[in-house]
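Input sequence (196 aa), recorded before submission:
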Amino acid sequence: VTVIGANALSLVAAGDITLEGSVTVRNCAGMNDGAPVATAGRLDQPLPVLGICRGAQLLNVFRGGSLIQHLAPGMVDHRQRPRDREEVHDVEVAPGSRLAEILGRTRLGVNSIHHQAVDHLGAGLVAVAWAPDGTVEAVEAGDGRPVVAVQWHPEGLTHLAPHEQLFLWLTRSAARRCGLDLPAVFQPAALIDEVA
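Predicted structure, C-alpha cell format:
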C-alpha cells in the first residue's frame, strides 16, 4: 500500500477495535481504515504520521503489537467522555523523545476517553508517555522517522498549550515535504479568519 500525493497522514479517533480474540495484523486487515494504517504502520517511508487515540492503537497493532482490550478501573479513570475538553490526568513524557520536543515539555495534562490501550509494543515503536497508572499514552518510531501517536484527544484541547503543537508539527512536516515553510506559532483557523 502506498499513499500517493500525501505529505502527511493523521490516523484519527473512531470507535473501539472490537475483534474476536487477540487483536492482530491478520484480523485487522479487513477493517475499513486498514490501508492508510498499514501504510503508516510499515514505517518504510518518511511520511509524517500523527495517530490519535484509536489511531495510536491501530498503528501499534499493524506493527505487530497488542492491545489491552479493557482497562480495569484503577487509580486513573481513562474513560471520561463528558470531560473531553478538560485535562483529567497527567502524562509523563520521555525526555529526549520527539513528543517531548514537539510539546516543549515532559509533563502535561490530557483528556481521556478510551478504555483500550497499547499493551505489547509493535516492532519499531517505543513508548514515550505514560499515565500515572503506567498505561502507555504515546508511542513513536524508534528510528527517528516522523511518526508520533498519542492516546488522548489533542483536538479537544487545542485551547490549552501545548496540545496545538502536535497539529503544528504535522502541518509543518507536511509543508517541508513540499518545500514550504510555515510560521513557528500555531494560529487556529478562527484567528486566521479574523486577521484576513
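Checked by second reader. Helices lie at 25-28, 34-42, 54-62, 98-103, 164-177, 189-195.
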